[in-house]
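Re: weekly structure request thread

Next one in the queue (501 aa):
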Amino acid sequence: MILSLCIAIPALTALLILLIPRASEQAARWLALFGTLAAFVVSLVMYANFRVGEAGFQMVEKYPWVSSLGIDWHLGVDGISLFLILLTTLLSVLCILGSWSGITERVREFHFFFLLLEAGMVGVFSALDLFLFYVMWEVMLVPMFFLIGVWGGARRIYATIKFFLFTMAGSVLMLVGILYVYFHTTDPATGGHTFNLLLATEQSQFPMGIQTWLFLAFALAFAIKVPLFPLHTWLPDAHTEAPTAGSVILAGVLLKMGTYGFLRFCLPMFPMATMQFVPWISWLAIIGILYGAMVAMVQKDIKKLVAYSSVAHLGFVMLGMFALNIEGLTGSLLQQINHGISTGALFLLVGVIYERRHTRLAADYGGIAKVMPIYASLFMIIALSSIGLPGLNGFVGEFLILLGTFASNAMYAVLGTAGIILAAIYLLWMYQRVFFGQITNEENLKLKDVNLREGFIIGVLVVLAIWIGVYPDPFLSRMQPSLELVLSRFQSAGLSQLFIP
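Done, posted below.
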């Protein structure tokens, strides 16, 4: 019951936090930290028990839930979801530590919603029942609504409503698609309809016209979550107004639900429609890469710059995915993990300096490397990993994406490469303005370098960035069998023109 524990531990801890007296804020923090740590340890047990080389789902749990409707508590993990679950549980621990001094009001309620969010996110990545997946998808929307709306910045209400409306619009259409798939999926054991994802994927031999509509129903929900251009407009507002922990988990995990949805549902279930939409998705991804990078270049707010960089990086992820070959898919999945590490760390770093100065404008800083040398060093390593410097995690993912994209369409690869160049420009220029030069603002002379807690949080992500950059095999060897199984769906559909070695 490893996967059920990964969901139950944060959910039960959230309920326990509500029982703590409102005055006992420290008790709520420690209980939340204990709950997230326990879930992370269980996810490490899941990783240790994961068998390398197997393509199918492992550690499968299946218990009847609403038998009359073919709904089960059905969980499983494969090479696609393994590291996304690990990333979720790890970032949750770091977010609780990162908000230790930043959240001072309604501490109990903040940790309740955050742990509820963690349970929903793990549920999305491990659900093998379409109904359960949709429930978890909606469950994690509610706590994120409150995290931004209550503990966010000055324009938090606007950002929250925009985030909620965008996500709900896509979710309703996805529900229609799920119901259509349900009524065309039969359980051989009972003869009735079922929400079983494995049976739905196996039996999804829909004609081209139906596949097109189903692809669009699912893809809209996932494209909003990615977010794919031009459905990205909610993201900069949500990122900028969210508290630091909200921004980290939003960039590190929630955006990956969209890319995960494409890998888990759209590609294997609707292969013919996927092939039809490859040019459309690829061009939207390229526009997102270039647009996100260029808008990031002109941002005065450091946090907003990092938010727009997510639009560019996730465009890169989608470009690799829709190359539809093993190199592109592997790079796409690895880059999802890399983005969670690098961009999550960037938001944590911005949060560190915001707690000290209560401003995110680059113009309010300058020369702070002299008073915060450790902070400046950590920031540089993470910025370089986000750019894709060889030896750090971003390089491996971007290299594989470009390799796969070049094999599929050389023009897409050339245009995508421009995004890497632009990323170097906006990140290094921002770094130069914030950290180098003379200290012109006297308040910056009083800044204190990172403390032990902050250094530990960022240090963990720096170690991961270096590990993936130097030795990515433990990640790639577990991902590739499951991704090859996704590609086999295209072969079985007779789409032999795919580049599959």
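Confidence is low (pLDDT under 50) at residues 496-501. The longest helix spans residues 326-357.
Next request, please.
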